[in-house]
Amino acid sequence: MSQSAPIFAVILAAGKGTRMKSNRAKVLHTLCGVPMVNYVIEATRPLLPEGLFVVVGHQAGLVEAVLPQDAKPVLQEEQLGTGDAVRVALAALEGEEEGVLLVINGDGPLISDRTLGELVERHRSAGVGATVLVAELDDPSGLGRVVEEAGVVRIVEEREASESERANRLVNLGLYAFELPEIREAISGLSAENEQGELYLTDVLETIGRRSRAVTYRLKNPEEANLVNDRAQLARAEEILRRRILDAHMREGVTVRDPASTHIEASVQIGRDTVILPGSQLRGETRIGSDCVIGPSADLQDTLVGDGALVEHSVGRGAEVGNGASVGPYSFLRPGTVLEPGAKVGAYCEVKNTLVGRGSKVPHLSYVGDTEIGADANLGAGTITANFDGEAKHRTRIGDGAFTGVNTNLIAPVTVGEDAYTGAGSVISKDVPPGKLAVGAPARAIAESPQRRRKRAEHDEPARDGGLAR
């Protein structure tokens, strides 16, 4: 057998997974944010397969939608067993005469690229027609036993096994390497004369073994033997993957104070020297910079957090937190929210589709939606933007250095000018000119704002000093 013969990978993902008791195909269930089948696909990458095929059937369209572009879906119109699934895949490989066919169950998300590589190496070095991945389990109850005798491998179902065969703890993991010509010939001879009326891939092993020998390869890492058939097994597999993800982040310089209560999905990126505090969940396309403090109990999804930022006891959905900005505790950043560097959203605030300018503060107990806030502005406690009139959303604009008193209501569309000031309890339904103080309900501009007076005094003071010096 040529050591350079191409590898073709076939992933079996057509089944319904009845033991999951789900309306969703089993391989679509996610672990750490990634569909189960995609973990298997990624494990094949380092082998550089010449072709990557995914056999789909139940909810084929939904399964195809989550596959990477280079994975070619092959439709098994009727789910007539694993042997039939491989037969369908082989039809897609028409014209290929030589190579190794790697067959992998789509419900084994813990399988590693290292194991797949070792299986192929074992297959090639043994010079055989088929190689089966097996594992020795402490409790093999309910699983088929693997019997290997003089180059022939048999899979014996537990209900059909003898007492001595049941005592055997070696089980089949549904992962095989075949010589392409051997599997083509053996598949053509399969029979569906059984209780289920299906073609079983395990039946080809004896045929191939008697013709060109078959061998087993024993799994080294028992974690990878965790196949997913029900929700309990799904939870166990996700716990293993979650810990792998956390360990990888910690090895790259991230501090995770309590791994047991921290959930980070596979797609999340985190910079070094960031600290993740207990109870935090980071999901989707979330990106965290360096030197941040996230948590405790932060829940961020598809959220960008810049270097040196703080997010405490808060929720982010499609938001952006700039360098050195702070959020929380107990605030909600909804989609479209952007906090520029140094901005602050304090306790018990909700911010939606809003730009909070550099150094500006929304300290506490405020709702701010569809708003543009300039730099160095301050919104008093209880500031509300009334952005919805019952039919349409409207925007509010707050200028640089503006200040709103407590319990200010801003009735959009409205603009509060640069250095403007609103008195406590004001209802702002008309624009406030720059540098003016507005009070009342409805508010009216009555005087120069405190900020503008301060700035004018600071500007005038050097002139007076200069005049005295002369």
Task: Describe what this molecule looks like in 3D.
With 470 residues, this protein is of the alpha/beta class. Helices cover 22% and strands 30% of the residues. It is elongated. Helix 6 (180-188) crosses helix 7 (203-212). The N and C termini lie far apart (99 Å). It folds into 2 domains: 7-231, Spore Coat Polysaccharide Biosynthesis Protein SpsA, Chain A, CATH 3.90.550.10; 248-465, 3 Solenoid (UDP N-Acetylglucosamine Acyltransferase, domain 1). It has a 9-stranded parallel β-sheet, with no helix packed on it. A 7-stranded mixed β-sheet has the order 5-4-1-6-10-7-11, with helices on both faces. Strands 12-15-18-21-24-27-30 form a 7-stranded parallel β-sheet, with helices on one face. Strand 41 (436-440) and strand 42 form a beta hairpin.
Short characterization:
Helix content is 22%, strand content 30%. The protein is built from 9 helices and 42 strands. It has a 9-stranded parallel β-sheet, with no helix packed on it. Strands 5-4-1-6-10-7-11 form a 7-stranded mixed β-sheet, with helices on both faces. Strands 12-15-18-21-24-27-30 form a 7-stranded parallel β-sheet, with helices on one face.
- Report the end-to-end length measured between terminal Cα atoms: 99 Å
Which fold name is given in CATH as the topology of the largest domain? Spore Coat Polysaccharide Biosynthesis Protein SpsA, Chain A
> What is the CATH architecture annotation of the largest domain?
Alpha-Beta Complex
| Number of discrete domains | 2
Give the DSSP E fraction (strand runs of 2 or more residues): 25-35%
**Mean pLDDT, nearest integer?**
93
CATH level 4 superfamily of the largest domain? Spore Coat Polysaccharide Biosynthesis Protein SpsA, Chain A
